[in-house]
Amino acid sequence: MANISEYEKTWREMSSSHWDQAMYENASFFNRHQVSNTDFIARHAVVNSRGKPIVGVEVGTGTGKFLKIVLEEHPSLFKRLIGVDFNPNFIETARKAVPDADFTLGDCRELKNVLNDNYSEDMQDSFKVVFSVNNTHGILPEKVRDDINKAMADTTSDSGMIIIGLWNGNSFGDAVQHFYAQNDHLCGSLQGASFDWDECKMVTASNYTTKWTKPEELGKMIDESWNVLDVVSSGPMLLIAAKPKNTKVQDNASGEAGAETEYYYDTEDASRFYQNFWGGENVHIGLYDNLEEPNESKDLETVFKASDKSLTRLLDHVYDHMGGLKIRRAMDMGSCYGGCAREMAQRFACEVLCVDMSKVENDINRERTLEAGLEKLVKIP
Ligand SMILES: C[S@@+](CC[C@H](N)C(=O)[O-])C[C@H]1O[C@@H](n2cnc3c(N)ncnc32)[C@H](O)[C@@H]1O
């Protein structure tokens, strides 16, 4: 790995056009994966912020192009989007190119101070989603990475979470051929470059250094004190969602009422009641019109059918209101055992994000979704 002064020289002085051309222009190797990257951040921001205003902070924001995509894909999700970088060329370009985000020149080893000095009001009472994407972590010398990890944890420990987007070591060979060899304005010529294929590391003659991370090495890139919430492999990217272990309790449930609800739905009694007596699959108010008169031996069957019927009616309404537009994504808030989510996924071939605070219900939902072979469409974070 390059030493700290070589890394600083490369990145503090790089011109904006060198980064943009390689990364965002010329039908880049990475272009088509950026949207799933922003979706991963948005999904975790929604699920974990629990109604608090969300401030997004990009560590090592470069020319701001990634934040531009975030704004295009999720225009109203963030109360504020902030990019921090220590390269003045990049910050100047970003401010012009993405006027709807805020950009600050600063060293992310001092992230908390940089943010408090410039955005102290936004830092209070907000849920901070601090992210490092497109392999920023993979260009950092180990000591700098450790310092930045600590700074990210410090910034989010009162209320927030961390997302890291790395480049997957399993795509390293492909990238050397189709990305680095095509972008010598970024990394210099590959003549004379040194490669460590086991470690997926490259140092070029002009000292551009990169490390790609294999899934089994993820632990090296993050702080051991974080709770990892999710890891996803998407094209050449590995995406990690985490929270520092000392995050305040309020983030883990929406206050006292949230904790009580969570507790109630996780109890064995509630679980038995909802599964055996109230619908089982669809736990909501049923529609009893035109069903046979209840009779004792058929009572349960009647309740189950009535529950199914109200779901069918609800989805008919959804379909009618879409006026012929295709439903691509839906969110089921309070998804319970996932009956509604699976029905939607099957009927509309759409992706459904399930949100529920009961671990017991989420576990059952995961099991049933797997059994139904719908795990690609029905997501239960
Ligand atoms: C691989 S680039 C990613 C740029 C941007 N995230 C994107 O997706 O387009 C890494 C970025 O991190 C910045 N960087 C590296 N170390 C930094 C530090 N200690 N403080 C602030 N920025 C840093 C570099 O200047 C560069 O813009």
From TrEMBL:
Where is each Methyltransferase domain found? 58-156
Q: Which domain of life is it from?
A: Eukaryota
Q: Which residues form a coiled coil?
A: none
Family annotation (InterPro entries): Methyltransf_25, SAM-dependent_MTases_sf
- Please tell me the species this chain comes from: Lotharella globosa
A single Pfam family it belongs to is: Methyltransf_25
Q: What is this protein called?
A: Methyltransferase domain-containing protein
Its taxonomic path starts at: Eukaryota, Sar, Rhizaria, Cercozoa, Chlorarachniophyceae
